[in-house]
Amino acid sequence: MPSEIAVEKKKLKNPPLKLHYLGDRALRQPAKRITKIDDELRQLVREMLQTMYSSDGIGLAAPQVGINKQLIVIDCEPDNPANPPLVLINPVIKQVSKDICVAQEGCLSIPNIYMDVKRPEVVEIAYKDEYGRPKTLKAGDLLGRCIQHEMDHLNGVVFVDRVENSLTLAQELSKNGFSYQAVKPVA
Ligand SMILES: [Zn+2]
């Protein structure tokens, strides 16, 4: 089936959806499972993709645009028109690797802040695609990290919650107009 969901990978002056930023309650609410995968949802997927490409992101979770649903879009090759985006509906983690790796992350909801985060190197997930077809995926590298980052959003967690260097984080946040009070460190 051709991907009808595909949108042109370009920057729009007025992206269809508004991003919510660190400190906004929308980012802290656990997202609800999606029960109906229909044209209306596929339209939302399209708008999330347009918003993500317009902001130079490689992943976007619905809570970041104020929508309390278990929906994620990802495209680790936004400059490659041939790379289809990935749409994750109701994703669940089936397994993570014992190997942990550290890499720098950023987030469209916390612009200009890039910091190291430790995560399992490989993750295995189950989800439904934009046509409701059940899928599984095992991913490492950038994609594996992106999936874990976006799935955190569905649980009301943002990457700064996982940053261990709290002193540098506090400095970076204040430099960019965010409050450290908005961080909820994970145990
Ligand atoms: Zn994010």
Automatic annotation (TrEMBL):
<keyword id="KW-0408">Iron</keyword>
<feature type="binding site">
    <location>
        <position position="153"/>
    </location>
    <ligand>
        <name>Fe cation</name>
    </ligand>
</feature>
<dbReference type="InterPro" id="IPR023635">
    <property type="entry name" value="Peptide_deformylase"/>
</dbReference>
<protein>
    <recommendedName>
        <fullName>Peptide deformylase</fullName>
        <ecNumber>3.5.1.88</ecNumber>
    </recommendedName>
</protein>
<dbReference type="GO" id="GO:0042586">
    <property type="term" value="F:peptide deformylase activity"/>
</dbReference>
<feature type="binding site">
    <location>
        <position position="149"/>
    </location>
    <ligand>
        <name>Fe cation</name>
    </ligand>
</feature>
<comment type="similarity">
    <text>Belongs to the polypeptide deformylase family.</text>
</comment>
<dbReference type="InterPro" id="IPR036821">
    <property type="entry name" value="Peptide_deformylase_sf"/>
</dbReference>
<feature type="binding site">
    <location>
        <position position="107"/>
    </location>
    <ligand>
        <name>Fe cation</name>
    </ligand>
</feature>
<comment type="function">
    <text>Removes the formyl group from the N-terminal Met of newly synthesized proteins. Requires at least a dipeptide for an efficient rate of reaction. N-terminal L-methionine is a prerequisite for activity but the enzyme has broad specificity at other positions.</text>
</comment>
<keyword id="KW-0479">Metal-binding</keyword>
<keyword id="KW-0378">Hydrolase</keyword>
<dbReference type="Pfam" id="PF01327">
    <property type="entry name" value="Pep_deformylase"/>
</dbReference>
<keyword id="KW-0648">Protein biosynthesis</keyword>
<feature type="active site">
    <location>
        <position position="150"/>
    </location>
</feature>
